[in-house]
Amino acid sequence: MLDAVQEIVRKFRRKPDILEMPGNHRYQPDSLKPYFGHDNIARFYFDVEWALLKVLAKLNMLPPKTTVLLTDEMCQTLRSKITTTLEDAIERAITKHDIRALLAAVRYFLMATRKHLAAILARWFHIPATSYDTIDTARIVAYKRAFWEVSFPALLKLIGSLKVKVVELADTVQIGRTHGQHAEPITVGFWLATVLERIIDIAEHLVAREAELVGKFSGPVGAYNCQVALGFEKKSQKMFGKTFEELVLAELKLSPAPISTQILPPEPLARFLLEFTLLSGALGQISRDCRNLQRTELAEIVEPFEGTQDGSSAMPHKRNPITWEGVEGIYTIVKDEFHKVLDVVISDHQRDATGMCVMREFPGIVVLTQYQLEMVNRIVPRITANKEALERNFAIDRHLVLSEAVYIALVMAGYEGDAHSLVNHTLVPRSQASGRHLIEELILLAKEKSELEPVIENIPSMLINWLQIPEGFTGYAGEKALEVARRADDLIEKYGPKKEA
To answer: What is the pLDDT of residue 501?
Structure first.
C-alpha cells in the first residue's frame, strides 16, 4: 500500500492547499479558512489521532522507544503534510474509506521520517477508535476554535460599534413605523437598540451553546466495548482516576457526551448552529431596516459611498444600499442551510451513513454568518443619521401621531362615547384638513358640542400642552436605548480583551 500512497503523494506534493469552504466562493471570509478550508479538515482529524497517541503513551501502552516521536515538532511536521485532498485521493484510489485513507497518509509521512521506530508507532494509530470518534470530535474542535478565535471576537466588535451608535443617537427623534406607516415617536438610538439587544441575547446564547459542545471516544456502537474488554478503561481509571474517553478528550480541551452511539447526539451542535442562524437573521434585520431607511424618499440613514464605487451599471446617479441588500440576502441561504441540520437528527439504530455527506455542509452556516458579520462590521461605524431628513419625515404626520394618547386621555377624562371612533373618524379628518394637532381639533370641537366641554376641563393643562409637542412624546425610548448600551458594555467587559491595569 505504501508504494501506491507514494505515487499519490507525488502528484500533490507541490500543489497549494485547497481552502474552499462549503457554499459559494464569493461569500467565504479568509478568517475561517484555517478551520473549515477543505484541506484543513483532515488536519483536525489528525489532531484527534495525535491526542489519542499521547494518551496511549501516558498509559504506557505504546512500545517505549516510540514515544520519542511524540514531539510537538513531529506533530506539526505531519500535520502540515496532511491535506483533505490527499486523503480524498487515497480514499478513491485505495481504501474506499476516509479515515483509513488518512491513516495511510500519516503512516507514509511518519515512516519517511524515521523508518524503524515509525513503523512500530504507525501500527498504534487509531487504536482503539472508530472513525466517528475521530470525525465527530474533530468537527467539534474546529467549531469551538472558530467560534472563540474568529466569530465571537467579530460579534463583540459589532456589539461595540452598535453600542456607540445607540448612545450617540439615543435622543435623536425619529418617527416610529409599523406596517410601513408612521406610528409613534421613538429615537434612532432606540431603533438600533432593539436590534442590538437581539444580538446581545444571541451572543449570550452562543456562549452557552458552545459550552455544551462535547466530543466522544466510545467506539463503534458507543458502549466502549474494546476499551473495557482490552484493558484501556481499567488502566485509565487505575493511573488517573478518569475514563479513557475523558483522558483523550482532555487533550483536546473537550468533555465527553453523557452517552453516544457511533456518533455524537445531534442536539448540542444543532442548537449551536441554530444560534448562528438566529444571528444571521438579526443581521438581516438591521440590514433591512437600514436599506429601507436609505430609500430616496426617507434618506434617514446614510451609508458611505466610496470614491471609486459605482451604484448602477446603467444609472450613474444611483447610490444603491448593496451591502445591506447582500447581508439580508445571505440570511435566506443560512436558514435554508439549517434545514439540513434538522434533516440529520435521525439515524438508524446506532448509526447509518445517510447524514455523512450532509454534515460536511454544516460549516456553511458559520461561514455565511461570519461573512455577514464582517460586512456589517465594516459599515456600521461609518453610517450616519441624516437629521434633516429625520425632521422632515417626522413633520409629515406630527399633528396626527399622538392619536393613541388623545383617545386614552378622552377615556380617562370621562368621555362616555367611543373615544377611539371619535379620534379616528372625526378628529383625524379635521386634523388632516387643517394641519392642526388632534388635541387642538378636540378643543375646537368642544365649542361645537357642549357635551365635550367637561371632558376637556378634566384633561390637565400640562397634558394638553404636551399633546402639541410630539417630539417630546418618546416615552422611555432614550432610557431603554441606554439600558441596552449598558448591557453591551457588560458583555464586552465579561468576554472582551482584558485591559492592562
So the answer is: 45
If you classify domain 133-392 with CATH, what class do you get? mainly alpha
Residues 6+ apart with CB under 8 A from 500: none
- 449 — alpha (psi -120 to 50), left (phi > 0) or beta? beta
Query: pLDDT value at position 499?
Result: 57
Question: What sign has the CA pseudo-torsion 296, 298, 300, 303?
Answer: negative
Neighbour tally for 263: CB within 10 Å: 24
Structurally, at CATH architecture level, domain 2-127 sits in Orthogonal Bundle (1.10)
C-alpha cell at 29: 471570509
pLDDT per position as a tens digit, 276-314: 999 999 999 999 999 999 998 999 998 776 665 555 555
DSSP letters, 165-184, are HHHHTTT-EEEEEETTEEEE
Q: What is the pLDDT of residue 12?
A: 79
Could you say which residues of the chain have pLDDT below 70? Answer: 114-115, 305-320, 498-501
| pLDDT the model gives residue 321 | 75
pLDDT at position 7: 86
Unique residue bearing C-alpha cell 452557552: 208
Largest CA distance in the chain: 109
Bridge partners (DSSP) of residue 187 are: 173
**Which residue type sits at 484?**
V
DSSP string, 69-121: G--HHHHHHHHHH--HHHHHHHIIIIISSHHHHHHHHHHHHHHTTSHHHHHHH
CA distance 236 to 223: 16
Terminal-residue alpha carbon distance, the chain: 59
User: Residue 186: in which H helix or E strand, if any?
Assistant: strand 181-187
> Cis omega (within 30 of 0) on the bond before 128?
yes
Burial group, residue 103, by CB count within 10 angstroms (0-12, 13-18, 19+): buried
C-alpha cell at 36: 473549515
pTM comes to: 0.93
CB 365 within 8 A of CB 276: yes
CA distance 291 to 236: 59
Residues 6+ apart with CB under 8 A from 12: 83, 85, 86, 89
Cell, residue 258: 453523557
Radius of gyration of the chain from Cα atoms? 31
Instruction: State pLDDT tens for residues 198-248.
Output: 999 999 999 999 999 999 999 999 999 999 999 999 999 999 999 999 999
Number of CB atoms found within 10 A of residue 57's CB: 18
